[in-house]
Design goal:
The protein is α/β, with parallel strands linked by helices and about 260 residues long. The chain has helices at about 5-20, 35-40, 45-65, 85-110, 125-140, 155-170, 180-185, 235-245; strands at about 25-30, 70-80, 115, 145-150, 200, 220-225. The protein binds 3-methylbut-3-enyl trihydrogen diphosphate (2 copies) and magnesium ion.
Amino acid sequence: MFSKVNIKVQQEQELFNQIDPQKLPKHIAIIMDGNGRWAKKRGLPRVAGHRAGIQSVREIIETSAEIGLNYLTLYAFSAENWQRPPSEVSYLMGLVEEYVLKELETLKKNNIKFQVLGRIHGLAPSVRTKLEDARQKTSQNTGLNFNVALNYGARLELVDAFQEISKRLLDGAIQLSEINEELISQNLYTRDQPDPDLLIRTSGEFRISNFLLWQLAYAEIFVTPVLWPDFKKLHFFQAILDYQGRERRFGKVISP
Ligand code: IPE
Ligand code: IPE
Ligand code: MG
């Protein structure tokens, strides 16, 4: 007789067996949404959903490293999320601090390179120093590149890039004719990283919410009704399999 756990493991294994390792996306970006609704459904405060979401974060990172994914970007806190009640914001920041402190050893052990995308200087010093420490201590790792988008807004990222490029133009370091797509990409927080091939959004919302506007130009989008705290390995594999069934055309005509 199979226990519940075994059935789950068996289902995961079946999906995993269907994944073509040659066609794995290089970069998966996830809008982790639905924590508040998850908590509400259970009659719990919203923050309980955020805490529960940490388990999904762990499982998805672990699975990404396991399957040999190159880049994973998780959207954890947008520049617009400061407009939430102060108590929720400080709880989220506390969770970030706690997560980084607790998980640093695991990240190191698993050869994961950790980075933050966003205006890190806009975060409280106690959060910032821990994030910076984790970045430094994992900077030589060569396995999964794990980005957390924190105090991130895609429009702000473009503003930062425009300012940087304009400064170099005014300094005479570059010419107007040198401003091209490559230069713009190199001035984004994701410089030197491939664009996401697959964007996953949980909780059934069909919007981008100011996430990686430039980089998602040709990403395949997968929206699942599953709320983030319920999103596990199985759902992650489903998203990858769905992606592998897509025909990516990049504006071209694919001959039959
Ligand atoms: C996602 O869950 C986490 C963050 C945006 C920080 P939400 O908190 O947005 O959950 P819902 O959308 O209200 O259910
Ligand atoms: C997007 O979720 C931001 C993160 C997941 C961190 P939101 O819940 O903030 O997005 P909207 O408000 O529904 O667009
Ligand atoms: Mg939300």
